[in-house]
Write a structure and sequence with these properties.
The chain is an alpha+beta fold and 425 residues long. It is built from 10 helices and 13 strands. The strands form 2 sheets. Strands 3, 4, 5, 6, 7, 8, 9, 10, 11, 12 and 13 form an 11-stranded antiparallel beta sheet that branches. It has a two-stranded antiparallel sheet with strand order 1-2.
């Protein structure tokens, strides 16, 4: 894309190396995916998903190769396009034949739907093109039920969803896929807009998957997309001159630029200015409901799951954040706290209140705000900078520990936690 002196030659060297990293293992679950580093061994029969290999690299790398072939094939040496196209073919065939043991995450389902159709067009596989449209129709039908995706409200993975939908919209294999991509892309942006707080420069929880609490301190892909349409001072991204988490997600930026951010005008206005106090209740699935309360200086989020899921590293939902709070600290800073581990949970956000009910067990909150002091955190009250939190609970006890940049508060053997928040000067 940059096309400065030496860039094309360097890109060609990289592409040749990437192709050699693809795994050939017919009949194995990792066939057609890629080693994640040059020194990584090829998986063996006892290989574990995610630990020893990542099937999703078929999509991420395969789509990058597809975009290069679509936009820049004329600048490649004559022998390289067939190698790249064959790599895409192997990635698609591996995905079609491996039979995953777990359901797709929404973001990967969207990417697979695009790559299947693109490869079908380039390789003359009408059956793949037809399958891609059937796949896309199924996703659209699921989305239309509640205008949501099952992998709900993720500052990072919504960015991948938008990537997949923009690929459908611009390069989809059929007219219907292109139409559905544009339709769902606009619908997803509208749901993001409902939960976004321009004054706090953050997306309100709850988060099905999250890598941080404050989008101004880690790179979220929603933030990267928004950076294409907003001035830097309004964009929910870290200061690029300071340390940050998840900085590697900036690698998506060239592909996002190529596709273009198509944000509806009414949503873009809400990204520029706070749109007023509101309470939200959004059905995700028949069992799950996202709730949020958003005011000028404080916002709360909670997810009701009908006790179908808990949170934490020992659960299948280790990136799930079922209860969240963000508030203004001083003039320009933002504080946040969240429930990060708990047994099966129902959390509901109302005006100034989070109501949390769990199976009996330990629940852990993470608190991140400048000026928090351990002696201001008790079982019934947290005196946080510019925020008072009153807690009603049946917990047997609490433990408070300070970590680098945050505090953790563990409520032991609890089933109820009601938190009332009040912003204070």
């Amino acid at each position: 894309m940059r096309h400065e002196s030496g860039d094309d030659e360097r890109a060609v060297r990289i592409l040749r190396q990437i192709v050699t990293s693809q795994i050939t293992a017919p009949g194995e679950r990792w066939d057609g995916t890629f080693r994640r580093a040059p020194e990584e061994p090829v998986p063996s029969g006892a290989a574990q998903l995610w630990r020893d290999y990542d099937p999703n690299w078929r999509q991420f790398i395969g789509i990058t190769l597809a975009l290069i072939l679509t936009e820049y094939e004329s600048r490649l040496p004559a022998d390289l396009p067939p190698l790249l196209l064959d790599s895409v073919r192997r990635a698609v065939e591996g995905e079609l034949t491996q039979g995953r043991a777990e359901p797709y995450h929404t973001n990967i389902a969207l990417l697979h739907g695009f790559l299947l159709g693109w490869a079908g067009q380039r390789l003359g596989r009408a059956d793949w093109v037809a399958q891609s449209e059937t796949w896309a129709k199924k996703i659209r039908t699921e989305f239309a039920r509640h205008e949501t995706f099952d992998e709900y409200n993720s500052p990072t993975y919504y960015g991948v969803d938008l990537y997949g939908l923009a690929l459908w919209r611009r390069y989809g294999a059929t007219e219907k896929v292109r139409e559905w991509g544009a339709e769902m892309e606009a619908g997803l942006w509208r749901d993001i807009g409902r939960f976004y707080h321009a004054g706090l420069t953050n997306l309100c929880g709850p988060f099905d998957r999250a890598y941080g609490l404050d989008m101004r301190h880690y790179v979220s892909l929603i933030g990267v997309w928004m950076g294409l349409a907003l001035p830097v001072e309004l964009t929910p991204l870290p200061d690029l001159g300071e340390p940050m988490d998840h900085a590697h997600d900036f690698v998506f930026a060239p592909a996002f630029v190529l596709l273009g951010a198509r944000i509806p005008a009414d949503v873009l206005g809400g990204f520029r200015e706070f749109q007023g106090d509101r309470r939200l209740e959004r059905t995700i699935t028949p069992e799950r409901t996202a709730t949020a309360w958003i005011s000028r200086d404080v916002m709360l989020g909670g997810e009701v799951t009908q006790r179908t899921r808990g949170a934490g590293p020992d659960t299948p939902y280790n990136q799930f954040v079922p209860a969240t709070a963000h508030w203004r600290v001083g003039t320009n800073e933002v504080g946040a706290f969240a429930l990060i581990t708990c047994p099966a949970v129902d959390a509901r956000a109302d005006s100034g209140k989070l109501s949390i009910a769990t199976d009996r067990g330990d629940s852990t909150f993470r608190i991140a705000a400048a000026g928090v002091a351990a002696n201001q955190i008790t079982r019934e009250h947290w005196a946080l900078p510019n925020l008072s939190v009153e807690i009603t609970t049946d917990a047997a006890s609490i433990d408070v520990s300070q970590r680098e940049g945050f505090f953790e508060v563990v409520y032991r053997s609890a089933t109820t936690l009601d938190l009332r928040v009040t912003r204070v000067p």
